[in-house]
């Protein structure tokens, strides 16, 4: 996506072909700092402290983290140490484990001297694959938006939660990819952007993406969606996912489940944009089996923003003695998901629907 006319991905290599460059997303929308990652440990910090975030980008950053380590020490011990350090950064998005397992399976059998170049090549391929997956999700999701646009006058109102935009992926985004395609096609689209407390990925990131691309949007508080749906002001919801089980349960940013409930009650279609690396084929019950990240309560009791003097500051919004509780994700059961938008097409959110779309994984899912 372009930022001030310059095309960017969310992760890329510097001119030396070895330094990994990212955008420090904790500083958006008030600044756009590009940060160099030169060690595996820095890549781990970038994931853990959410300079980069979003399931696909976490996976891509972890892959480059392993490549950075192979540039320093390509031994077996270093490979497995790096894998463990990177894997421990965040627990919920399955793309992290997927990317690390993929890299270790490739690098493990190679001679140590061959590992660095192979690691960089595979990390780059993971990034390119993500871009292509998201582009295809956009194509399939476009058909949904076109169908709604054909039946109504005025804009197609789409509600999204958190940031499943290009900043959460390598490019295009998942939930936003159909939106970009619809806008390119000339469809009148308007986006309701959930602020997404506590870290405000909607307010800080999705709103910035929409504004940068000139897409009509409004920022809403997380509790507004149900009201808007009751009044016919939401035509469809599209969210992302951090892990989807083989039976179609969707784990995404906290608050997604409440939007799905409201959508179900109001007959609003609730779609989830699902790149296949985000499917955890081993799991069948999202609520009991997906680990939910428990983050610092300070993210709830304190907020970041820019004051009238232009200073970015953190403020406390609760009494000193009040602790925050901060489960970072929730699970939306498959029965509340209208359909899953994958890179291969639109699938029912069910074991049969996913297995039919990805038959090569049906055996793992059935175990
Ligand atoms: O905590 P975050 O910002 O990493 O959470 C991100 C989300 O929940 C996204 O919706 C999800 O990763 C899908 S991104 C395409």
Tell me what you see in this structure.
With 367 residues, the protein is of the alpha/beta class. The protein has 2 domains: 128 residues, Up-down Bundle (Four Helix Bundle (Hemerythrin (Met), subunit A)), CATH 1.20.120.420; 229 residues, Rossmann fold. Helices cover 41% and strands 19% of the residues. The protein has 13 helices and 18 strands. Strands 8-7-6-9-12-17-18 form a 7-stranded mixed β-sheet, sandwiched between helices. A 4-stranded mixed β-sheet has the order 13-10-11-16, with helices on one face. Strand 1 and strand 2 form a beta hairpin. Helix 2 runs antiparallel to helix 3 and helix 2 runs parallel beside helix 4. The N and C termini lie far apart (40 Å). The mean pLDDT is 98. 5-S-methyl-1-O-phosphono-5-thio-D-ribulose binds next to helix 2 and strand 11. 5-S-methyl-1-O-phosphono-5-thio-D-ribulose (MRU) binds next to helix 2 and strand 11.
């Amino acid at each position: 996506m372009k930022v001030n006319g310059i095309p960017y991905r969310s992760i890329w290599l510097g001119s030396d072909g070895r330094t990994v460059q990212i955008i420090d997303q904790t500083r958006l929308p008030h600044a756009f700092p590009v940060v160099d990652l030169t060690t595996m440990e820095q890549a781990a910090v970038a994931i853990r402290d959410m300079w980069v975030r979003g399931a696909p980008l976490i996976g891509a950053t972890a892959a480059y983290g392993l490549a950075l380590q192979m540039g320093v020490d390509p031994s077996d011990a270093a490979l497995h140490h790096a894998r463990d350090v990177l894997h421990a950064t965040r627990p919920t998005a399955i793309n992290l484990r997927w990317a690390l397992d993929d890299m270790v399976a490739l690098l493990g059998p190679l001679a140590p001297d061959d590992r660095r170049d192979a690691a960089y090549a595979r990390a780059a391929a993971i990034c390119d694959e993500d871009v292509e997956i998201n582009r295809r999700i956009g194509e399939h999701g476009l058909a949904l938006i076109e169908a709604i646009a054909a039946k109504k006058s005025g804009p197609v109102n789409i509600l999204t939660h958190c940031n499943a935009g290009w900043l959460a992926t390598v490019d295009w985004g998942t939930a936003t990819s159909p939106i970009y395609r619809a806008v390119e096609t000339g469809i009148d689209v308007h986006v309701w952007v959930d602020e997404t407390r506590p870290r405000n990925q909607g307010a800080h990131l999705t709103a910035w993406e929409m504004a940068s691309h000139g897409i009509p949007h409004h920022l809403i508080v997380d509790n507004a969606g149900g009201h808007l749906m009751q009044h016919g002001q939401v035509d469809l919801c599209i969210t992302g996912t951090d892990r989807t089980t083989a039976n179609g349960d969707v784990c995404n940013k906290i608050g997604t489940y409440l939007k799905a409930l409201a959508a179900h009650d109001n007959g609003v279609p609730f779609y989830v944009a699902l790149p296949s690396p985000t499917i955890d084929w081993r799991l069948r019950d999202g609520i009991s089996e997906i680990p939910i990240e428990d983050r610092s309560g300070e993210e709830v009791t304190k907020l970041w923003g820019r004051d009238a003097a232009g200073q970015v500051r953190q403020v406390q919004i609760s009494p000193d003695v009040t602790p925050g509780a901060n489960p970072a994700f929730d699970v939306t059961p498959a029965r509340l998901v209208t359909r899953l938008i994958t890179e291969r097409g639109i699938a029912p959110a069910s074991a049969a629907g996913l297995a039919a779309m990805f038959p090569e994984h049906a055996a793992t899912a059935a175990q």
